[in-house]
Amino acid sequence: MDRDALQVSNLTGAAAAIASGVGRRDFLKICSLAAAAVGLPASAAEKMAARVALPKKPSVIWLQFQECTGCTESLLRTSHPGAAELILDLISLDYSETLMAAAGHQAEASLAEAVKENDGKFVLVVEGAIPVKDGGIYCKIGDRTALDMLKDVASHAGAVIAIGSCASWGGIPSADPNPTGATGVPDIVKGKPLVTIPGCPANPYNLLGVVLQYATFGTLPELDAKLRPKFAYGRVIHDDCPRRAHFDAGRFAQRYGDEGSRQGWCLYKMGCKGPRTHANCSLLNFGEVIGAWPIGIGAQCFGCTEKELAFRVPLFQTVEPEQLSPPGMYPSVNAKHGEVSPLATGLAGVAVGAAVGAGIAMTRKLGQEPAEKDGGEEE
Amino acid sequence: MSHAPATPVGGKLTTPFFNFMALVALAGAAALVVRFAQGLGAATGMTDGYAWGIWIALDVVVGTALGCGGYAMALLVYLANRGKYHPLVRPAMLTGALGYTFAATSIIVDVGRYWGIWKIPTYVAWWNFDSALLEVALCVMTYVMVLWIEFSPSILERWRASGTPGQRSFAESAGPRLDRALPWIIALGLLLPTMHQSSLGTVMMLPFSKMHALWFSPLLPLLFLVNCLFLGYAMVVAESTLSSTGLGTRRETRLLGALAPTMAWVLILFVVLRFGDLALRGSLPAAFVAGKYAAWFWLETLLLLAPAVVLLGRNARERASTQFGAALSMLAGGILYRFDTYILAYDPGSGWSYFPSALEILITAGFVAAEVMIYLWIVRRFPVLSSATPAESR
Amino acid sequence: MTTLTRRQLLQGAAVAGAAGAAAVAVPSVAEAASARARQPGDVGLLYDSTLCIGCRACVTKCKSANNLPVDAMNINGVPYDAPDDLNATTKTVIQVAAQGDRFAFVKRQCMQCLDPACVSACMIKAYQKGPDGVIGYDQSRCLGDRYCQIACPFNVPKFQWSKAVPVMVKCEMCRHRKEGPACSEVCPRQAVVFGKVPDLLAEAKRRQAASPGKYLARIYGEHEVGGTQCLYLTAADVPFETLGLPKVDGTPQPHLSTSIQHGVYKGMIAPVALYAAIGLAVWRNTRKGDEEKKP
């Protein structure tokens, strides 16, 4: 389907997309994929599909601040036909600077209207960091600061989703020396159900999963301490990395283009941050293209989902792997060696027993002889 | 004081006992094929942690000590000038020669690169004088030859009496020359065991960080030397009693009884040295820590103290059973001490364990059986036992 | 197991000295243990357990650099090159020391002692310390008696148990490679560093000083068994014993046995004198009675 057509078709035109491009089969398939990603049973996919078919859709307001639109772009550019269309049909996207046809005061008016209409029920998706330094003057839309806008809109939202690393914890704009005081949503919005989906860009399927679950069941997935859904951020990239075997075997690429690099060996020694980066990139590649992710194309993971790593730890610096338990197949310093066969113990027992027994028996026999008297027996 | 001359025992060689020994020796020989074809790992229970097993601890370390009967008797007869024990010397020399020969053979079986053993005595420039093992190797090699030379009068005697003409002329020409050289060969036979039996103790001083405090001692050389002495005496008693019982020859009860106090005092010397050393160095508390180490330590001590007490009593002078029982207890205690020093007290660290494999045990058993067979053959054919003719007055 | 302290050892030496006069001349070894002094040209490895991530690059590279075969271990029916310790096909290995939930890695290889037990043990000098202090092994001299294995405080030399024509296997610091040890070359985190020992000691102390509280304030190998050329750093809460490194003091392993060997057999004077004395006594005693001169 033609993406330019999507953009001009305005927000409600997406319904037509299902009719024109996405059949019910594809539709269910994507719902299953999303359900599986969130960790819901297969039956949930049916429910999701049913929910999407209802006329009244949850209202979504998509705010963009200090960002590069990469997260929106990666959502729109999923190569499986219809994933973007699906999410756009699932929801009523009432405000999005990238996707909406309206502009200027007309656009701001639609925001105010959407907030008023769905007060307390709409989902707020935030893309981009929020500058807080100097009263937040470094990012303004329609003469309102991003800070003011976020606080205002969030106070009316039912749930908030911070998409991308910038919205989740500050991202690139917050890199040292952070001249604008760029800050993530969790530091500003308090008291609302909040999910962060960090990533640079965030994987659209992780958003899809969260949104579908919220839309269908009205619940949010289980979150970790950094408010990231556990289904996507529960394990480190290293755990499921396709190059993991090379790490375990100690085969490392030393530099780009060397023998190891060509052989697809582990990139740890080149500074890959996979061992500390919580994300499911190694399982869920981008744009449904197998191998379309940093490590897949021979570049080290730079830790985009982790505030402590991305844009902070130098690209080629190695990190301590996060391991919660010792690797099971490694030998212990107290490895057991040596074995005892039953046959050997038996033989030894017989030999020692025979010697001791014969000795005692013979001493007894000798004891029956009178002192100093000669005598002898055949053995 | 005159002795009954040594005479061959004679009789049929292939008794049921002899045949059984032959069977064991054959099984051992078969096991040897596996060892030489497939390496030590396939035939033994040894590991990189316990790199020495029973072939070293029993065959060599214990085996040579049991062969010290000749050394111990020679000390009495030639150095302390107790000529009355002379009848006990020849069988002791034979046991010694056999024990050392099989210890040396066991070394060839045990070392991984046995074909290079000739380098030890020949490549003098390579000698490492730090190594106690080098001294053991050189001494044992020489002492095996010395023992057979010491025993050779027995063979020459037989040849002179009833050999072929060639044997007779050889015996007649070699005999006088041997007689002249014998004092110096006997002296060598006294020096070499003193050196290498103490060095067998020094060998286990090198891995002192892996040794249990109850067995490690700076006195290990001295303890091993005293240990080989009483093992030697015990072996003389046991061997004499066994052959008189098994071969039907006359008992040497009175002669062996005269030896009893010497044995007792050597035993007491050993125990006092050992406990004194442990106490002075503050290691004695380890003997009271419940566990296998303390258990074996006390078993060794009991097995040595009990015969010391018995041997000082009147019974030891008159009763073969008392002598034999005491000798067996000494043998058990002395063998245990050596075995424990080399295997039990040696701890390469957690995770390692050792138990000999079936083939390993078979090979050792085979060696012992072969040794017994050769002993029987020699005492039946050559003049070794002076008590061979029963009911003869002294 | 009750281990010996240096004090016990020296006390024992005094006892030995006293008792020595009695029967066999055990020399007094009361003089302080004098290990071979560190030479400026000595080379070694610095292993930092806090930096090691257990990737085993060193193990793999060591095998290829030394042409060592795979040590196949079946895990769920699949063969892995997973040596569980140093062995006949493994000159270095990474092991895990686990303490409850905490765990640390440790690399094992020859420690290159300043005063090596293997060198002291070997009868015909199959082990010799090179000009850089690295203990080289010469299989043409080796007899396979394995006394080196018994002697080594770290259980390093390994024997080819499965071969009919066996040799010993031990890290020789890749002395055949111009570029130095393979293990340090591939380490991704400088957990294994190769260099001159004085530089390594300085680097170890620099690391300890740079991160106060991170390291245990001790460098294993600086003084242990009289000093080794391979040095270990560990985290403050992981003692070296937990890493499987033996608890030893500063006495060189061969100290006592060498003193005895050298004391008793110095210039072969004592044995020759003893032989002369015994010979005379025997000669005198055997002259007396004709029947007593033959054994």
How would you describe this structure to a colleague?
- The complex is a heterotrimer of chains A (379), B (394) and C (295).
- Chain A is of the alpha/beta class and 379 residues long.
- Chain A has two domains: 3-232, NADH:ubiquinone oxidoreductase-like, 20kDa subunit (Rossmann fold, 3-Layer(aba) Sandwich); 235-324, Cytochrome-c3 hydrogenase, C-terminal domain (Cytochrome-c3 Hydrogenase, Chain A, domain 2, Irregular).
- Chain A is built from 14 helices and nine strands.
- In chain A, helix 2 (14-20) crosses helix 6, helix 3 packs across helix 4 (42-53) and helix 4 (42-53) packs across helix 10 (204-217).
- Residues 1-20 and 373-379 of chain A have low confidence and may be disordered.
- Chain B has 394 residues and is mainly alpha-helical.
- Chain B starts with 15 loop residues before the first helix and ends in a 13-residue tail after the last helix.
- In chain B, 60% of the residues are buried.
- Residues 390-394 of chain B have low confidence and may be disordered.
- By secondary structure, chain C is an alpha+beta fold.
- Chain C has two domains: 36-253, Alpha-Beta Plaits (2-Layer Sandwich), CATH 3.30.70.20; 267-292.
- Helices cover 28% and strands 16% of the residues of chain C.
- Chain C is built from eight helices and eleven strands.
- Chain C has helices at residues 6-20, 57-65, 117-121, 147-151, 182-186, 197-210, 255-265, 269-288; strands at residues 43-48, 72-75, 78-81, 93-99, 102-108, 127-129, 135-137, 158-159, 168-169, 192-196, 231-233.
- Residues 12-34 and 290-295 of chain C have low confidence and may be disordered.
- The chains are: A alpha/beta (379), B mainly alpha (394), C alpha+beta (295).
Short structural summary:
Chain A has 379 residues and is an alpha/beta fold. Chain A has helices spanning 3-8, 14-20, 24-38, 42-53, 70-76, 83-90, 104-117, 146-154, 164-169, 204-217, 230-233, 244-248, 259-263, 342-367; strands at 59-64, 92-96, 123-127, 130-131, 140-141, 144-145, 159-163, 182-183, 194-197. The radius of gyration of chain B is 21 Å and the shape is globular.
